[in-house]
Amino acid sequence: xxxxxxxxxxxxxxxxxxxxxxxxxxxxxxxxxxxxxxxxxxxxxxxxxxxxxxxxxxxxxxxxxxxxxxxxxxxxxxxxxxxxxxxxxxxxxxxxxxxxxxxxxxxxxxxxxxxxxxxxxxxxxxxxxxxxxxxxxxxxxxxxxxxxxxxxxxxxxxxxxxxxxxxxxxxxxxxxxxxxxxxxxxxxxxxxxxxxxxxxxxxxxxxxxxxxxxxxxxxxxxxxxxxxxxxxxxxxxxxxxxxxxxxxxxxxxxxxxxxxxxxxxxxxxxxxxxxxxxxxxxxxxxxxxxxxxxxxxxxxxxxxxxxxxxxxxxxxxxxxxxxxxxxxxxxxxxxxxxxxxxxxxxxxxxxxxxx
Length: 355
Ligand code: NAD
Hints:
Elements: E1 2-11, H1 15-33, E2 35-42, H2 46-52, H3 58-65, E3 69-74, H4 89-100, E4 104-110, H5 123-126, E5 130-136, E6 148-149, E7 154-155, H6 162-177, E8 182-187, H7 193-206, E9 213-218, H8 219-228, E10 235-238, H9 240-251, E11 261-265, E12 271-274, H10 291-304, H11 308-323, E13 326-327, E14 338-339, H12 342-353
Parallel strand pairs: 1-2, 1-3, 3-12, 5-10, 8-9, 8-10, 13-14
Antiparallel strand pairs: 4-5, 4-11, 6-7, 11-12
The protein binds nicotinamide-adenine-dinucleotide.
The site of nicotinamide-adenine-dinucleotide has 22 residues, from α4.
């Protein structure tokens, strides 16, 4: 029987609640699909600061490297907001991603038919939307040097190397090959040299993927097109800062931030996590939507472990639960038959996924 070692980082706020539900679902599918998962819990963010004084303890950094993959909840909260930047929970997560070399962030924006009315856009605009944003995660302006705040000015630097663009472009083209074979590379090549460079390299990489259609779009237009006619997109390939903004905008097409998963992958161990934060406003109330984290567990099975049937079972279970009218609070106003707690929703998905 196959055995997998999964790192578990629950984090802060609703993190522990939603990760527990994902584990429940993983346990259910592993039994029916015939594999064994061992879980290894590690600390990050506020929970790590409270226990060890730092947001990313060495035990976590070393521990994740020994796992096949890592499932992560969310970190942060007002309790730690006044710490210095390098001691805050967020710096633990940025540091962990960097240390794990997870240079590609995959963020699907999927609209479930049952929830078309949950979107702030018209149902006919969002029905059928299925976009994958591939965001470069460890380069660009968030990491570029030099950076400084001086007395009368401040600056950051947007840098990309050839290798960084090649490897993220390859991820996008390979994903497009498994989807609808279209990549739209988003940049600001009319203004930024770094974007001109990005575009030239993406065109070179595209030559190795003749079955995939490549288009280019300026980021300001892409922001507009995502709202105007989102169905035109299949895979969006973009840099760190543009992807940060566009993937959040794309996520709202689906209606709730509580629905969408993400994967951060590289050459080694990957990190699978919901796109939302630790939601301190609802933490501990048992009302968080666990579906984004459960979907992240499904992405982990699909992309990291190759357990495609188990991943399909989870995705089908989510669709079935939504179709039958089960809703957590955040999506409770849209054709709900029953409002579920976080734990009830986990039970329902685990039950359906194990059929
Ligand atoms: P957030 O995503 O935590 O919450 C935004 C809103 O969405 C809140 O009203 C929240 O209740 C709701 N929400 C989020 N997830 C939900 C879920 N699963 N079910 C139901 N409702 C949900 O963003 P925020 O409020 O800006 O940030 C809160 C904290 O999370 C901050 O400390 C921030 O730094 C941190 N954060 C962490 C991550 C991460 O760990 N990857 C990402 C973003 C923000």
